[in-house]
Specification:
- The chain is mainly alpha-helical.
- It has one domain.
- Helices cover 59% and strands 4% of the residues.
- The longest helix has 33 residues.
- The radius of gyration is 27 Å and the shape is globular.
- It starts with 17 loop residues before the first helix and ends in a 7-residue tail after the last helix.
- The relative contact order is 0.12.
- GO terms for molecular function: oxidoreductase activity.
- Its EC number is 7.1.1.-.
């Protein structure tokens, strides 16, 4: 069974009337804003659940209006302009971040060909032969908003956050580009609608003499590329554990320290729109786009009509949950750890994987997905083992006596590093007085 009849091609774009094009643009923009409002509420609720607390639950049903109330509060707060700030750049920096994050949604396919008031049109604003490069360009330009915002604030902490963002970008951008190269090599196109169509091809795979449906998602066929791309995506959106440009515990709020009111809200909006946008890009490149997952594909009409939008939004929400899950689970990496991880781990592994793919492409019958499955899945599992395998033995924790006595001769005693205060002389005397009675009662003095 195949669904190619529903897949749009490049020839299907550029034929819509002006009102339909305008409606698509408004829908993509509204999707970004609405996803931001729900994303903030979703993150607070999920992190609250992980931290065993309720999260927002007072403003509106289930706290759904809390994010709207926060936005109204930001709009009416005082807009403070630092005296040393560059006024023009200081104003346009958050606008650059928001525009770049929203623009990337223009080439994301939300669904197949549908009929809107009698016009057959793809559920996508536009598509070009190099649509994925448009996404990369938007993500690369978004860092200018962070850098310029930190520089134009005229303060030390924002400047350090902006400089961190530049070094962070060159650490993950190369690995992200190589991951997309693997998708280009497999799909044979840079068009987002074409990549989704390639992942929707229904093929059969013979295993031990039995034919089974072959997985078409590149997250399975190109498992190492998917893992590296998603790690780079977390770094690009400045989300934990790679939120070094903000780093509240080190840089107060990083590049946003001197921003307030609506300008601060724009930076916050750009972060969540970028998170939703990159989740949509990941779904498009690796998770089959709007195609339904198995076993929903058993239903004949799963990939036709308006149903594919539901599958697309469900995949995006699942990836947003992973973003939130990482924030509520992992601690922030140090600056040097992230740089080392990007240049010495992600980049070499990705180069080797691209070399393996190039070798497979030279083999006859390249379109047979059994070769990719036989190589991609073991390579992905090996990559996961490499990333999470412990590299050093845990250092044994020093005892309390070693912490107190580990000092140069003639110096004063130092308190223990873990703040374990030794018992006072009065406590020792009380314990010693109770010791005979404890022995007679058959209890331990440490339990008293």
């Amino acid at each position: 069974m195949t669904f190619l009849a529903q897949d749009p091609t490049l020839a299907d774009f550029g034929r819509d009337p002006w009102w339909l094009v305008l409606g698509k643009i408004v829908f993509a923009f509204a999707f970004g804003l609405l996803a931001t409002l729900l994303g903030v509420w979703f993150e607070r609720r999920v992190v609250g659940r992980m931290a065993v607390r309720p999260g927002p639950n007072q403003v509106g049903p289930f706290g759904l209006l809390q994010t709207l109330a926060d936005g109204l509060k930001m709009a009416f707060k005082e807009d403070i302009l630092p005296k040393a700030a560059d006024k023009v750049v200081y104003f346009f920096a958050p606008v650059i971040s928001v525009v770049c994050a929203v623009t990337a949604l223009s080439v994301i396919p939300f669904g197949p060909m549908v009929s809107i008031f009698g016009h057959w049109t793809p559920l996508q604003v536009t598509d070009v032969p190099v649509a994925v490069l448009v996404v990369l360009a938007c993500s690369s330009l978004a860092v200018y908003g962070v850098v310029l915002g930190g520089w134009a604030s005229g303060s030390t902490y924002p400047l350090l956050g902006g400089l961190r963002s530049t070094a962070q970008m060159i650490s993950y951008e190369v690995a992200m580009g190589l991951s997309i190269v693997a998708v280009f090599m497999t799909a044979g196109t840079m068009s987002t609608s074409g990549i989704v169509a390639k992942q929707g091809d229904a093929t059969r795979l013979t295993v031990f003499g039995t034919e089974i449906p072959a997985p078409g998602w590149y997250a399975i066929l190109l498992l190492p590329s998917f893992i590296i791309f998603f790690i780079a995506t977390v770094g690009e959106t400045n989300r934990a554990p790679f939120d070094l440009p903000e780093a509240e515990s080190e840089l107060v709020a990083g590049f946003m320290t001197e921003y307030s009111s609506l300008k601060f809200a724009l930076f916050m909006l750009s972060e969540y729109v970028a998170m939703v946008t990159m989740s949509a890009v990941t779904v498009t490149l690796f998770l089959g786009g709007w195609h339904a997952p198995w076993p929903i594909t058993i239903w004949e009409g799963a990939n036709s009509g308006w149903w594919p939008m539901l599958w697309f939004f469900g995949k995006v929400v699942a990836l947003v949950f992973v973003f939130v899950w990482l924030r509520g689970t992992l601690p922030r990496l140090r600056y040097d750890q992230f740089m080392r991880f990007g240049w010495k781990v992600l980049l070499p592994i990705n180069l080797v994987w691209i070399l393996v793919l190039s070798g497979l492409r030279s083999i006859e019958d390249w379109d047979n997905r059994s070769k990719l499955i036989a190589v991609g899945i073991p390579a992905g599992l090996l990559l996961l083992a490499t990333l999470f395998w412990p590299t050093r033995k845990p250092t044994p924790k020093p005892t309390l006596a070693e912490q107190v006595n580990n000092r140069p001769p003639g110096s004063f005693p130092l308190p223990p590093l873990d703040l374990q205060v030794p018992p006072s002389p009065r406590t020792r005397r009380v314990v010693a007085e109770r010791e005979p009675a404890n022995i007679a009662a058959g209890t331990d003095s440490r339990e008293v």
